[in-house]
Amino acid sequence: MFEQLVDVICNYVEVEPENIHPESRFMEDLGFTSFDFMSMLGELEDAFDVEIDEQEVADIRTVQEAVDYLEKLQAEE
Amino acid sequence: MLYSTIRDILVSAEKQFGPEDAVRYKIKKNTIESKSYTQLKQDSESFSRALEALGERGSHVAVTGATSYPWLVTYLGTVGCGSVAVPLDVSLPAEELCELVDRADVTVLVLDEIRKDVAAIVKDRCPKLKHLVSMQKETSDEEMLSFWQLLKENEGAYEYEADPDSLCTIMFTSGTTGKSKGVMLTQRNLAENATCLDMKIPPRTVILSVLPIHHAYCLSMDILKGISLGSVICINDSLLRVAKNIKLFQPNMILMVPLMIETMAKKLEEVSGLPPKLVKWQVFGKQFHTICSGGAYLPPAMIDLFNRYGITILQGYGMTECSPVISTTVSWNIRRESVGQLVPNCEAKTVDEELWVRGSSVMMGYYKMPEETAQTLEDGWLKTGDLGYVDEDGFVYLTGRKKNLIITKNGENVSPEELENKIGEHRLVQEILVREKEGVIEAEIFPDYDYIKKKHVKDVRAALQEIIDEYNQGAPAYKKVYSLKVRDTEFEKNTSRKIKRY
């Protein structure tokens, strides 16, 4: 899951994959804008076949938190 | 054609396009439902009748929620019977929303149930509020009325001739002193702003509405202009799904803010190895041709980039106080460095480098804020707070900003003082300055080093970050602070002991 997420992240920001860590913060460390982040989550909905709730993702800050959230959704499916 | 009331826009559109689709929206993943111009007018009139039945004709009616069919009906029904609509930002913290409901003297609140937290407290916080209406509830109960039941019970035509110069909408905008201001707009302000310029947009153009509807730009240009042209207005259900909804609704045109345009540019450039035309087809569809950009500055390089893919970007400039459009580019007359030509109902002049505008779209004033109104309006001229000038052909050029506001790339106006006051409340913060840096909001803090010593704080940066994190938790996305700078020395002050901002 983490590696797949890194691939998608690299489509949005100019960061080398090796510089993306679980504790990397989307906005502060990786340079995401809020709309980049939303668009990426929309892309992940298809990639992982889950349905994301816009309200629930407001507090996600790090790559690991996104991984945890997506894994939780997959487990619920 | 120029219309001077919102009611006239709707009535005329219904006459011309009655059975055609006015609004399309998703009800399931890939299932679209639509409402015709006739249905939109009928439902809006039913809502007007409902307000009359509740004894609230002429009252202030707040509406909060994401863009939806009930939102549009509430708005059109409210302004279509002489009441005043108060669109509120659905992402605001509950207490802040309640404060605005109270300050705007709202007696009816129509809300999306995603804000159950607001529904739970609003009656206690706002003693003037008499009716709470749910957009989702199927039947009314003691706590909340059902929007749908209200429409059903009050079905029927409603005749009303609106006075063009009557107040019809109060929209809140960030104030430079930290307190948001209610911009009072008349029927004429909004209707003439939406219809005074013939942009040669053909009828039945399919528009995907992606911006927050409580903003004047979306309300005026997506909705009111869209209706006046007989467009098909498609509702984007979430910012997560803009790309998917483009494929589903196949729009010709989208209004965007620079932040979105930059992300969409990445999507275009992500597709490699195909000719530009095919890239456009893949990302936006064959039918797509225009993006209107507003809300914030768009780098001209973006216009060139999209042009390579056969997409025209029209840039506009405006502010809520001017309903909102002041100038816009049109496809046949683009000057790259300009933010467009003045719209026909607007004239402008430069006073001490500041751009002042006058015309039928300039607001009545700020609701119950006579001092702020007097500071902003002078002999019918609106002081924009922007530095700039207009050339002999009416093209507007902006050179800087006089007002102390952060205009984020998504078009939101953020008052630095508001954030400084909130974060500065903490004992650890002695001085703070909030500004925009590289597209995000940055807080620069001079901590109270005596307090740090006294409390034996070891990691000052971490302690300050904790304060920022705590603030961010309750803040809407566009007011979050994503960069922290810690100072060792006090800020430089001006003669009145205020921190020098620039």
Broad structural category of chain B:
alpha/beta
Biggest sheet character of chain A: none
- Total number of beta strands of chain B: 27
- Quote the distance from N terminus to C terminus of chain A: 16 Å
- The helical percent of chain B reads 25-40%
Q: What is the count of DSSP helices of chain A, taking H or I runs of 4+ residues?
A: 3
- Overall body shape of chain A: globular
CATH topology of chain A: Non-ribosomal Peptide Synthetase Peptidyl Carrier Protein, Chain A
Q: Determine the oligomeric state from the structure.
A: heterodimer
Class from secondary-structure proportions of chain A: mainly alpha
CATH superfamily of chain A: ACP-like
Q: Please identify, by name, the CATH architecture of the largest domain in chain B.
A: 3-Layer(aba) Sandwich
Q: Give the count of helical stretches of chain B.
A: 16
Quick recap:
Chain A has 77 residues and is mainly alpha-helical.
Structure, explained:
The complex is a heterodimer of chains A (77) and B (502). Chain A has helices spanning 2-12, 34-48, 63-76. Chain A is an all-alpha fold and 77 residues long. Chain A has one domain (2-76): ACP-like (Non-ribosomal Peptide Synthetase Peptidyl Carrier Protein, Chain A, Orthogonal Bundle). Chain A is globular, with a radius of gyration of 11 Å. The relative contact order of chain A is 0.20. The model of chain A has no long low-confidence stretch (mean pLDDT 90). Chain B folds into three domains: 35-162, Rossmann fold; 206-406, 3-Layer(aba) Sandwich (Rossmann fold); 415-486, ANL, C-terminal domain (GMP Synthetase, Chain A, domain 3), CATH 3.30.300. Helix content of chain B is 33%, strand content 27%. Chain B contains 16 helices and 27 strands. In chain B, helix 3 (69-79) links the parallel strand 3 (60-64) and strand 4. The chains are: A mainly alpha (77), B alpha/beta (502). The interface between A and B is medium-sized, with 21 and 25 residues.
